[in-house]
Design goal:
single chain, 436 residues, alpha+beta, FAD/NAD(P)-binding domain, eight-stranded mixed β-sheet, six-stranded mixed β-sheet, globular, binds flavin-adenine dinucleotide, FAD
Length: 436
């Protein structure tokens, strides 16, 4: 029998971004597991940019009992009312562009400053869980004993389950896929986890909204999330921080360069002139936004291929380490939070111990991987639709608008609670079969 002092499971989370924090908050609500979070940086940090989520993710925040803290820092307190997800305009023309699509849904587009979003998780994290300056250098996952963790600072630790929340450049994913390649003799599996350049360059920046009021008229992106679309390019603008700031992200796609090496650092600073040159000749509503970005950053957008598994031995992947995707459906963080919720629900079942852990991880993988991998693939396709590069749809606006909206259908599939129940059922069935 498990004593009070001895936790049912010791879980190590490596990486304290959105996925690691969401998982740590969810697992900290389970009384008989011990959770430790190891972050390589000296503190939790996020970039100065916006992040948006959809109602599925909001439901999880409610289920975790943390929604109130997020509501305080959302652009507006989220409600069930239908709101605009995105207003799609054709904009690569002088004068005035035009709307060709409108995506509306309950709760609309729920949006935050990233620092505030992370802060709401941090506010719900028990104080004795996080360890900073702990870059996981390697781990040993032997079938018989615990997982040994070795950090860059020379220290080590042990756990029963290691969860890789270490982002798109995940070293845990690399180690996992290398182990699978060794065991199966299939060397090709290793390349699936190597991030590749999408051929897309993104520019990002924030604008105080007082700069976006002209002749007493507010820029439309303050109130409405807008996607300004042009051939092989698009620009997204939406208000965050209670309407005091507009978040802008722009894309410049070179699809013929997809998979080629990206020659610069993934993220660099750039000039406003470079940004304006890229969208020269676009409608005024776009240039009015871009010229107010004082310190744009330039991103070589990378992705990974869909993985054949998110689990191996006593190790699981969550968030970008499992499914780093292009941002065209604003889904990466939401999917990370869905991973965290489903995994935490499975691990909270008292039936899960070291000896039954493999069934728990298999259930997590069976439920989450097909969904997140499908969104990873769909996000890439959505981006091509926004930029009139979808071969079948091109510039046929009457078909394109509905087809873009159709790409969001996954939002209405079984909700995260149903996913968690399905995973629990799968795990129980596997444990029963193992016993019979
Ligand atoms: C341009 C852009 C726009 C986006 N917009 C949206 C959006 O609007 N909505 C949305 O849902 N998603 C969006 N995303 C995706 C979203 O940002 C990511 O999916 C999300 O941040 C992933 O979180 P994560 O915790 O998995 O990874 P990360 O945020 O990368 O966190 C990884 C953490 O692990 C730490 N770490 C790394 N290696 C180690 C190690 N070896 N040991 C210990 N710690 C380590 C890092 O320091 C970091 O803190 C966007 C992405 C991009 C690129």
């Amino acid at each position: 029998m498990t004593s009070v002092q001895e936790p049912r499971l010791r879980i190590a989370i490596c990486g304290g971004g959105i996925s690691g924090l969401a998982l740590a908050v969810a697992l900290s609500q389970v009384p008989d597991v011990n959770v430790q979070l190891y972050e390589s940086a000296g503190r939790f940090r996020e970039i100065g940019a916006g992040v948006m989520i959809w109602f599925r993710t909001w439901r999880i925040l409610e289920l975790l009992g943390v929604a109130e803290d997020f509501a305080k820092v959302a652009n507006a307190p989220p409600t069930e009312e239908r709101g605009i997800g995105f207003d799609y305009r054709r904009s690569d023309m002088a004068g005035e562009g035009f709307r060709f699509g409108l995506f509306e849904l309950p709760y609309g587009c729920i949006r935050f400053h990233r620092a505030h979003f992370l802060g709401a998780f941090i506010a719900n994290l028990p104080s004795n869980i996080a360890h900073f300056g702990k870059r996981l250098a390697s781990y040993d996952d032997s079938a018989s004993g615990p997982v040994s963790l070795h950090f860059g600072d020379g220290t080590s630790a042990e756990c029963d389950l290691l969860v890789g929340c270490d982002g798109i450049k995940s070293s845990i994913r690399t180690a996992m896929l290398h182990a699978i390649a060794r065991e199966t003799g299939n060397a090709e599996v290793k390349s699936l986890g190597v991030p590749y350049w999408s051929g897309i360059i993104a520019y990002r920046g924030l604008i105080p909204t007082d700069k976006l009021v002209k002749d007493g008229k507010e820029h439309p992106a303050i109130a409405t999330p807008i996607m300004y679309c042009g051939k092989s390019k698009h620009v997204v603008g939406y208000g965050i921080s209670r309407g005091t700031v507009v978040n802008v992200i722009t894309m410049n796609s070179h699809l013929d360069k997809e998979g080629t090496p990206y020659s610069e650092e993934w993220v660099t600073e750039c000039s406003t002139e470079e940004l304006l040159d890229c969208y020269a000749g676009w409608e005024d509503e776009v240039t009015d936004l871009l010229r107010h970005i004082e310190q744009p950053t330039k991103w070589g957008l990378h992705s990974i291929k869909p993985l054949p598994t998110y689990v191996h031995g006593s190790v699981a992947l969550v968030g970008d380490s499992a499914h780093a995707m292009l941002p065209h459906q604003g889904a990466g963080s939401g999917q990370a939070i869905e991973d965290a919720y489903v995994l935490s629900r499975i691990l909270s079942d008292p039936i899960v111990t070291k000896s039954s852990l493999s069934h728990a991880l298999a259930a997590y993988d069976a439920v989450r991987r097909p969904k997140a991998n499908a969104i990873l693939v769909g996000s890439r396709k959505s981006g091509q639709m926004y930029e009139f590069d979808d071969e079948a749809l091109g510039e046929r606006y009457e078909d394109l608008g509905p087809a873009i909206v159709h790409m969001w259908d996954w939002l209405w599939e079984e909700d995260p609670e149903a996913d968690a129940r399905e995973a629990l059922d799968k795990m129980h069935a596997a444990i029963r079969d193992g016993l019979s």
